[in-house]
Amino acid sequence: EIEEEEVKRKKEFIVVKEHELSDEMQIRQMIYIGPEGLAIDKQNYKEKFKETIEELADDPTVQKILSDKELEQEELDKLAAQLNKPEDYFNEDNLKEAYEQPSGSLVDFIKTALGKYTFPTKKERVNKNFDSWLRQKEYTVEQILLLSQLKNRFVAGDNEIGADDFNKPPLREQGGIQKAVSLFGELGLRQTLEELNQTVLI
């Protein structure tokens, strides 16, 4: 009976070894979980997580989370271990990738699954990071304009910002990499892009 239940649960996921992915499946949004790197559809993973959390809605620890009560680390660790079972692999790292929320916590994801929390959009998150970061700097208006355009490229879909972005519109038409080097210096530009990718564009 236990084996049948496990087979049933696994069938609820779209599971396939990473090297066996077809082109069609690679286009879909997949995450890779577990020690064997099984590929699972992100939306399917999130829906199954939501179902699992709804089943645990009466759990004392989940109730404390919903009531915004302070949790003992032991309580959170016990719940985390319960969710991270081999057939599900619901853990913070996988959930961050599935929800595309790199700064999310397990508590955030549980609240989201139960409709008690909404993550900021990628645009909202990046804009907030960017504005906070700029307040710590003393850039010129021209430098800020260039950095804003790089930030917008990331929001539009770039995974990270690099030298190639200066060869694409609109930066290419505005002087490209040469213009950027003239504004920041070669070393300064390299350091700025690295900091932008590591602390802002996440």
Write a compact overview of the structure shown.
Helices cover 57% and strands 5% of the residues.
How many β-strands, per DSSP? 3
Count of runs of 4 or more consecutive helical residues = 11
Question: Describe the biggest sheet?
Answer: 3 strands, antiparallel
The averaged pLDDT comes out at 87
Low-confidence stretches: 6-11, 21-27
Class per helix and strand makeup: mainly alpha
Which bin fits the share of residues in helices? 55-70%
Spatial strand order of the main sheet = 1-3-2
Q: What percent of residues are in strands?
A: under 5%
Give the radius of gyration: 21 Å
| Shape descriptor | elongated
End-to-end CA span: 44 Å
Sketch the topology as an H/E string, one letter per element: HEHEEHHHHHHHHH
Defining key terms:
57% helix; 202 residues; elongated; three-stranded antiparallel sheet; 11 helices; mainly alpha
